[in-house]
Amino acid sequence: MNASAYLDKLRKRREVIETTLRHLEKEHHIVDENNDWLDYAAYESRVTLLDGLTDGYLKERLEIDSAITRIDEKNYALCACFVCKEMREEFAEV
Q1: Per-residue pLDDT tens for 46-70?
Q2: Measured between alpha carbons, how far is 55 from 40 in angstroms, rounded to an integer?
Q3: Which site from 35, 37, 81, 89 is most exposed, i.e. has the minimal number of CB atoms within 10 Å?
Q4: Domain with 34 in it: what CATH number?
Q5: What's the CA gap between 85 and 76, in Å, rounded?
Q6: Residue % of the chain over a pLDDT of 90
Q7: Crossing angle, helix 3-33 and helix 40-72, to 10 degrees?
Q8: pTM, entire model
């Protein structure tokens, strides 16, 4: 697979991440606006879950942006995102 194919995969994954982050933001607003929580621990648990998911996606987006930059500059290095792992496995077979 050539570099442009990997760039396409990375960009598509980034789009999915952006969509997911928008959804998580909406969910966070819903949780914050809902005053009917009977159990404050349930509220805290939901907020912690949403924050953790958001942090994970933000980190992955940064890794993808970094990988895209490296590919554009032809300065390849290792990245932890799933697309780059797939690239490394494919190159290891060659």
Answers
A1: 999 999 999 999 999 999 999 898 8
A2: 22
A3: 35
A4: 1.20.120.910
A5: 13
A6: 49
A7: 160
A8: 0.74
Over residues 77-90, mean pLDDT: 64
Q: Which domain holds residue 29?
A: 3-93
- Domain count for the chain, please give it: 1
* CA gap 76, 94 in Å, rounded: 16
CA–CA dist 68, 14 (Å, integer): 10
Rounded mean pLDDT, 11-23:
97
Q: Would you call 46 helix, strand, or coil by DSSP?
A: helix
Name the DSSP class of 73. T
What's the CA gap between 72 and 30, in Å, rounded?
39
The Cα–Cα gap between 84 and 67 comes to 8
| Residue 85, CA atoms < 13 Å, CB-side half-sphere | 4
